[in-house]
Amino acid sequence: MKNHEWKWVYLSALGVIFFLFLIGYANEAMDCMSGGCAVMFVSFFLVITLIAVALLFWSRARTVDSILQGQDLLAHWTYSREDSAASASREFAEYREANKALFIVVGFFFLIAIIIILIFGGEAGGLTSLILLGFLGIIALAAWGAPKIVYRRSLRAIPEAYIGLHGVIYREAVYPFRSFLNRLESVTYHEAGQGNPPLLTFSFIQVVGLYILRPYEVSVPVPQGEEDHAREIAGRLG
User: Do 44 and 20 contact (CB within 8 A), yes or no?
Assistant: First the structure.
């Protein structure tokens, strides 16, 4: 398995540099009331967003490096393609519902920003609002399309799980136990039941707003014969 997380760190950093340059250009070459302030406002918003994205992927990249180098590795489990596909279908349904809730929260804040800009933004308020509406549309597409993309990627990913002291890699997706806007709350072992195999469930808290916390879970199937080991991991990390 290769660590692809660094690629997103570098791309986010390049985006920050580009929009900082755009802020400087708008400040020097554009009149504020003719769209310069709107360009600077949107660019500043994107700089903050990309910095957050870079920090997120930086923590993920460090977690992957640590696990793949064998540092503090607790378990490495592999699965059949059939078991992995069944697990991916279950997770797809959960991810889709979680994205709907998250989009409602994000969309609410975007709409508040748009209303404020329309009221106090002057001549450039309309253009800035249209730009923000465009970004909201992109977010809506991402919220709808991301679960499908993740589902398809899960079906193609190597069916394995790495569990370390600082994070989990499950079907090539990375979940650090502590990262920017994200932390592990608990680890629970669930016995087999209702057609599901034994599961090692990692419960996380993600910050999606100033005072808004979104809980989510990552359930890693426990291979046959690894039940006692999974209970030990839950006791150690939970």
Answer: no
